[in-house]
Amino acid sequence: MNKRSLLILLVICCISLAACSGKSDKVTDEYVKNMQTFSSNVEILSVSINSIDASSETASADLLTYLDYMDQTFTQMASLEVPENIPDASVLASNAATAMHDSVTLYHEVYGAEIFDGDLELKAKARYDHAFSCVAELGKLLRNEEYIIPVDTVSADLTSPDLADPE
């Protein structure tokens, strides 16, 4: 989970740099403030996930609860009004939220099943990683660095009918 912590730190730094650029307007200021809140919330959730005692009888339920909160947090982030001068932020945020939603849905399938499915868990992890990859690229965008919109290599493999319409 160190990777996630670094990504969160990256986003916080990016937002701070964007805020100091001197090119602020009301929408940008509000977006920066909301992204700082998003980053803080994700960091808290990441720490909570890392703190779960894997040997606990409630470990799976605890994980799924935190992942549900993570899904809500990403969904809220994707619904933020994006300043006109950074339209790709909307694409990256939407991709991150969709990937997180897919991941959480898959994790519920994995940990809710009577028989553990390792392949499904790998897909869930890949979607989770893709969500954080989009967040990292969003951080680069906010710092005015070269960024990419990460290629989604896993979504085509998802077979769950629940994932057909993530909203």
Structural account:
This protein has one domain (2-163). 35% of the residues are buried. α1 runs antiparallel to α2 (26-50) and α2 packs antiparallel against α3 (59-78). The chain has five helices and no strands. It has helices at residues 2-19, 26-50, 59-78, 88-112, 118-142. It has 167 residues and is mostly helical.
**Whole-number total of structural domains:** 1
Instruction: Give the end-to-end Cα distance, rounded to a whole number of Å.
Output: 27 Å
How many strands appear in the DSSP assignment? 0
Shape, principal axes of CA atoms: globular
Q: SSE string, helix = H, strand = E?
A: HHHHH
The proportion of strand residues reads under 5%
SSE inventory with pairings:
Blueprint: H1 2-19, H2 26-50, H3 59-78, H4 88-112, H5 118-142
Helix pairs in contact: 1-2, 1-5, 2-3, 3-4, 4-5
